[in-house]
Amino acid sequence: MRVGSGWDLHKLEEGRALFLGGVEIESPKGAVAHSDGDALIHAMIDALLGAAGLSDIGTYFPDTDPTYKDIDSRVLLRMTNDLVRERDLDIVNFDTTIVLQSPKLASYIPLMKESLSEALDLDESCIGIKAKTAEHILGELGSSDAVMAMATVLLEER
Ligand code: MG
Q1: What's residue 132's pLDDT?
Q2: 7 C-alpha to center of ligand 1: Å?
Q3: Phi, psi angles (nearest 5°) of residue 25
Q4: Is residue 10 within 8 Å of 37, Cβ to Cβ?
Q5: Mean pLDDT in each 10-residue stretch from start to end of the chain (158 residues)?
Q6: Residues whose CB is under 5 A from ligand 1 (ion)?
Q7: Which residue, 22, 29, 62, 116, has fewest beta-carbon neighbours within 10 Å?
Q8: What is the per-residue pLDDT for 112?
Q9: Measured in angstroms, how far is the CA atom of residue 34 from the centroid of ligand 1?
Q10: For position 110, what pLDDT does the model report?
Q11: Residue 75 has what pLDDT?
Q12: How far apart are CA 144 and CA 50, in angstroms?
């Protein structure tokens, strides 16, 4: 068994789209990013790479590469899962947390699970997603000017 952890943070600005777990969230502010800025998926990618003893998301998908401009992060997640599987490792489960002051994400969690389950070919019962606010503190997180996500993954050798 191997465990991995990942973390990501994106600044939020008005007039941009907000994606989390591959789902578009109705929000006045969205992520400032080279890709679609999906903080949850980026944290999951780093968790997978870490568990497999590989590098980080910036090494595999650099934000200077035009290939990844506005890319759907689920494509990157699938590519990362392929890298892991090539090393004879399979996902046992993911546990994740999103920190976003607003909007509330509870109603989006089933959609995120469905989207991630499809991208990873993994049962929804193996994907945990918790959504928390920043209690109006923690600077930009508390003022809804940033979104943060953390992910832990367990892999097993095939
Ligand atoms: Mg990111």
Answers
A1: 97
A2: 9
A3: -100, 135
A4: yes
A5: 98 97 98 96 98 96 92 97 98 98 98 98 98 96 98 98
A6: 8, 42
A7: 62
A8: 98
A9: 9
A10: 98
A11: 97
A12: 29
How far is the centre of ligand 1, averaged over its atoms, from the C-alpha of 73 (Å)?
9
> What is the dihedral angle through the alpha carbons of 3, 85, 41, 57, rounded to the nearest 10 degrees?
80
pTM: 0.97
Q: Rounded to the nearest whole angstrom, what is the distance from the C-alpha of residue 44 to the centroid of ligand 1?
A: 10
pLDDT for residue 142: 97
Residues 6 or more apart in contact with residue 18 via CB below 8 angstroms: 12, 24, 25, 27, 29, 30, 31, 37, 147
Output the six-digit token pair for 14.
């008005």
Choose among 62, 68, 135: nearest CA to 102. 135
Provide CB contacts within 8 A for 28, sequence distance 6+: 14
What is the CA(132)–ligand 1 centre distance, in A? 18
| Residue showing tokens 């109705």 | 26
Nearest-angstrom CA–CA distance, 118 and 143: 33
17 CA distance to ligand 1 centroid (A)? Answer: 14
Q: How far apart are CA 142 and CA 120, in angstroms?
A: 31
Per DSSP bridges, beta strands 89-99 and 146-157 are antiparallel
